[in-house]
């Protein structure tokens, strides 16, 4: 199974090597802020994964939404959580942008009501960091046409935190301690036995 | 002091599965044998080193999960990477000395078992500081490289030592590549069983930790220090003199060749460690690959050790048949310099296909140079073989630390520029090989000493004082000197291979 996965990766690597030409990409700076997005998470609120929920609401406030087909809601890192973390960097080219790691929901855009909402339970594997919510509007070809977010352009206001669920358990600590102690003590015991055995020979 | 002259001691004829020389070191290599003492020592040495490499580099492939769990910054990750290779700098030197005094079986198994707790406790790391500490202490186990090289140098004769050292070092280094495949696989299995990903990575670390524990016991119970037996028993029966640590240490660190090899090893093996730490991220960032794809390229670099490091050792032994030690030194310089040139080219490659091709070639030359280095190390000193092995090995880690600090910390240089500059540094730091000179064999630029009476015995016996020679501590070195005459190359007239006469009036 692992071998098959590796083969698949190698083939996709080969394909990428061969077809290095990049197709058209969207620049974030070319998008208009056509959605008004709001969330129940208030500024500075601390949310616990697996327990707390966020209610996200969005509404269209532009002039031409004829191409809009889907709305995607994303959880995005605030600048403080991107600092000294190149894997979360913001890039204008949305193909290379890593600001928004988590897709919360992708729901069809309703042209009649021009709004929507979603209640999201913060998942347990959401990394501890400071976040805001962003919504993208996409057309039928999955190109991004517009966006909205719960914070301002500088991404400084209305940010909330998700606290850590480290995955540490007491059982892990006990197992580590027991295995370590057993290993070292039994090794020392064997050494001593060898030395005593050597002396009596 | 009652030391009987050797002529009157008649040890029972020992039966060995392989043909041996006068020191009972094997003159033949049989891959699929596990016969004691030679082949069992070989397999235990590379397996134990492999396990330690897996543990020391178990974190890098899981970094994308760990960095989210522990909220690490790029600086935290870089510091932990530097810490993982810096612990072994002194550990390698210390273990080298311990091998000389206690024997490789006890020295390496003790180190492996004492570093296993660091790997167990990685599962409960909770902050950047605790993560750095566990990586630092787990990295001490990389010192088992020295014991593996020492062990094979004790078991295999001069004509084979490059090959044996290259195989045990290379197959051990394989762990650095294997871990890039093992750990993600173990992680995904545990996660599929039902654990949350932030718990799954923690449980995954028990696998390398358990492997380390089992290996330590295997080495202790199944290993044998020397062809004639374990060191403690040989000491008791008077077959081997008990070593004086301070003398062993002094003769090691006062041999300038050890220092030169320590520097040059930093720019083949040290570079390999650096690349292990940065290459997945380099391909991920520069070419926008998926992390798993970048990880496979990173694994390929480490997995080339399967054949490339042994190839260096084999090449050295083949060249030495005709050109002796001078051939070994020339080959080492050439291979390592080509590796440096390929490194310069790698940083300048802008396309993915070309980069992958160059990095494969680079890995072969870089790792072959490591194998070539340890085909020269066994001849630098006989009495202080462990200390010289440890110095050289430690120098490798110093090279890794220095290179990462200068070129790959923070954002002073882009990674591609750092790689090119690292290549230039490899070329410069390989030049000192020209300065290595053995009076009995010559060096790169000069032939052997014009003093024709200076022989291998004179070189190796200079490590023993006349008092020690009177007692008879130097016999092993004498045998080794006789067996190393092949390092003169084809032009040499091989003198009698019988036991060398013990004459106290050898001119030095």
Automatic annotation (TrEMBL), chain A:
Record GO cellular component, one term: plasma membrane
Family classification: Belongs to the NAR2 family.
Pfam families: NAR2 (PF16974)
GO BP: nitrate assimilation; response to nitrate
Signal sequence annotation: 1-24
Superkingdom classification of source: Eukaryota
Role according to the record: Involved in nitrate transport.
Protein name: High-affinity nitrate transporter
Transmembrane parts of this sequence: 172-193
GO molecular function (one): nitrate transmembrane transporter activity
Keywords in alphabetical order: Cell membrane, Membrane, Nitrate assimilation, Signal, Transmembrane, Transmembrane helix
Organism listed in the record: Trapa incisa
From TrEMBL, chain B:
One Gene Ontology term, aspect cellular component: membrane
UniProt keyword Transmembrane, yes or no: yes
Topology within the bilayer: Multi-pass membrane protein
GO molecular function annotation: nitrate transmembrane transporter activity
Record flagged with keyword rRNA-binding: no
Keyword entries, A-Z: Membrane, Nitrate assimilation, Transmembrane, Transmembrane helix
InterPro entries listed in its UniProt record: MFS (IPR011701), MFS_trans_sf (IPR036259), NO3_transporter (IPR044772)
Major place of residence: membrane
Protein's recorded name: High affinity nitrate transporter 2.5
Pfam families attached to this UniProt entry: MFS_1
Family from the record: Belongs to the major facilitator superfamily. Nitrate/nitrite porter (TC 2.A.1.8) family.
Ranges in coiled-coil conformation: none
């Amino acid at each position: 199974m692992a071998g098959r996965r590796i083969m698949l990766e190698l083939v996709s690597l080969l394909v990428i090597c061969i077809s290095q030409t990049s197709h058209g990409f969207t620049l974030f700076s070319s998008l208009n802020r056509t959605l008004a997005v709001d969330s129940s998470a208030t500024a500075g609120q601390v949310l616990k994964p697996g327990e707390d929920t966020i209610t996200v609401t969005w509404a269209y406030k532009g002039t031409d939404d004829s191409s809009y087909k889907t709305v995607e809601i994303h959880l995005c890192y605030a600048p403080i959580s991107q600092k000294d973390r190149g894997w979360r960097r913001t890039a204008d080219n949305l193909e290379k942008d890593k600001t928004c790691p988590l897709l919360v929901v992708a729901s069809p855009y309703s042209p009649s009501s021009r709004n929507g909402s979603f209640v999201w339970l913060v998942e347990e594997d959401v990394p501890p960091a400071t976040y805001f919510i962003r919504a993208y509007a996409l057309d039928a070809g999955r190109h991004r046409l517009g966006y909205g977010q719960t914070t301002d352009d500088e991404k400084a206001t209305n940010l909330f935190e998700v606290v850590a669920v480290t995955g540490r358990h007491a059982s892990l600590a006990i197992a580590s301690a027991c295995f370590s102690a057993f290993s070292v003590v039994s090794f020392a015991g064997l050494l001593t036995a060898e030395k005593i055995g050597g002396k009596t020979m | 002091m009652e030391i009987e002259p050797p002529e009157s001691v008649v040890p029972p004829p020992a039966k060995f599965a392989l043909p041996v020389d006068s020191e009972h070191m094997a003159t033949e290599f049989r891959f699929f044998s596990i016969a004691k003492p030679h082949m069992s020592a070989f397999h235990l040495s590379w397996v134990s080193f492999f396990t330690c490499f897996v543990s020391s580099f178990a974190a890098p492939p899981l970094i994308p999960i760990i960095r989210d769990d522990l909220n690490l910054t790029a600086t935290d990750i870089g510091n932990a990477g530097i810490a993982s290779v810096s612990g072994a700098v002194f550990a390698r030197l210390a273990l080298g000395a311990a091998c000389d005094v206690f024997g490789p079986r006890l020295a390496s198994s003790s180190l492996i078992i004492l570093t296993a707790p660091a790997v167990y406790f990685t599962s409960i790391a909770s902050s950047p500081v605790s993560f750095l500490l566990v990586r630092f202490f787990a990295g001490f186990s990389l010192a088992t490289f020295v014991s593996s090289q020492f062990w094979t140098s004790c078991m295999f004769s001069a004509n084979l030592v490059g090959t044996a050292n290259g195989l045990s070092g290379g197959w051990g280094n394989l762990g650095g590549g294997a871990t890039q495949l093992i750990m993600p696989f173990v992680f995904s299995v545990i996660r599929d069983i039902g654990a949350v990903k932030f718990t799954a990575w923690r449980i995954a670390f028990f696998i390398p930790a358990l492997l380390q524990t089992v290996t330590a016991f295997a080495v202790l119970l199944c290993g044998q220090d020397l062809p004639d037996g374990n060191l403690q028993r040989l000491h008791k029966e008077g077959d081997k003199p008990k070593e004086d640590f301070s003398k062993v240490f002094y003769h090691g660190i006062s041999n300038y060749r050890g220092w030169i090899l320590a520097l040059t090893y930093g720019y083949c093996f040290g570079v390999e460690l650096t690349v292990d730490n940065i290459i997945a991220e380099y391909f991920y960032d520069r070419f926008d690959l998926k992390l798993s794809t970048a990880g496979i390229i990173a694994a390929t670099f480490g997995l080339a050790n399967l054949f490339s490091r042994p190839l260096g050792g084999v090449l050295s032994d083949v060249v030495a048949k005709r050109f002796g030690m001078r051939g070994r030194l020339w080959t080492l310089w050439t291979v390592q310099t080509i590796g440096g040139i390929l490194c310069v080219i790698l940083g300048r490659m802008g396309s993915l296909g070309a980069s992958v091709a160059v990095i494969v070639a680079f890995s072969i030359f870089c790792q072959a140079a490591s194998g070539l280095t340890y085909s020269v190390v066994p001849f630098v000193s006989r009495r202080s073989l462990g200390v010289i092995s440890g110095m050289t090995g430690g120098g490798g880690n110093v090279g890794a630390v220095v290179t990462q600090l200068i070129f790959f910390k923070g954002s002073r240089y882009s990674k591609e520029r750092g790689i090119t500059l690292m290549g230039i540094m490899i070329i410069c730091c390989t030049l000192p090989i020209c300065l290595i000179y053995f009076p009995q064999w010559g060096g790169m630029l000069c032939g052997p000493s014009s003093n024709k009476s200076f022989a291998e015995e004179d070189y190796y016996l200079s490590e023993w004082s006349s008092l020690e020679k009177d007692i008879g501590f130097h016999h092993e070195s004498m045998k080794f000197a006789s067996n190393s005459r092949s390092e003169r190359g084809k032009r040499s007239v091989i003198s009698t291979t019988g036991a060398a006469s013990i004459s106290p009036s050898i001119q030095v």
